[in-house]
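Pipeline run #58 for the internal structure catalog. This entry was flagged by the ingest filter as a single-chain record with no existing model, so it goes straight to prediction. Upstream metadata was stripped on purpose; only the residue string is passed forward. Reviewer on rotation: M.T. Logging verbosity set to normal.
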Amino acid sequence: MNKQIIENQATLDDTHRLRLLSYNIQAGADTRRYREYVTRGWKQVLPHKEKRHNLNRISHLLKDFDVVGLQEVDSGSFRSGFIDQTAYLAELAGFPYWYRQVNRKLGKLAQYSNGVLSRVQPSMIDEHRLPGLPGRGAVLMEFQTTEKPLGICMMHLALGRRARLRQFSYISELVSHYSHLVLMGDFNCGCSSTEFQYLMENTNLQGSACDMMTFPSWRPSKKLDHILASPSLKVAKSEVLNYAHSDHLPISLEIELPENVVLPAAA
């Protein structure tokens, strides 16, 4: 686990409560219409000063959360101006702990990655390549508590339904031993999909309402991004944030741990 030393870093407000956020940031690109995938598609592969400005704006949002899962971050290639976007956001938003998982490397041109940021030090962190074509992954973090550990698994799943079903099967088995569990990320499918229903049946998780749409950010009509929690964790608040600095909207979930379960204070 990478640790970034930050002066005046934010602390965990409540060791019984966690504010979680999942956000597909599109490597800092700011897409606002479907046609911009074509007319501004070059911004996906070339560096541009707007990306850094967009990351700066995103960092202001992240400051309000304790654990953040990021999808479609770049780990320091030509297209991002050689900025490791996970590390950059961790520093700006005051997160002492961060980790990146590079899922696809295109030499110096692009490094497609997942990233996680945390105000509490994980006792364990592990990355997993997911079944299917290369380029999809999950990051599993474990946090020690005064009782059983808390597992938080962040992922970015495939576009194809069959691949997602295999990936959900893999994830379900990976996290099956956790009594206190959060799954979060860009699942690339909605609540009514066969593969999502498979996940829910095999994990007994609870999540935000299925009408909380996250994609596309300019006219949300699909819920591709999710945060799910085990029944042992009380969902205090859930919302999709109107923060359109990507083609996805960020989704947040605030959870309360059982009274006998306490997290360590932030570093």
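catalog note: The radius of gyration is 17 Å.
catalog note: The mean pLDDT is 89.
status: ready for reviewer M.T.
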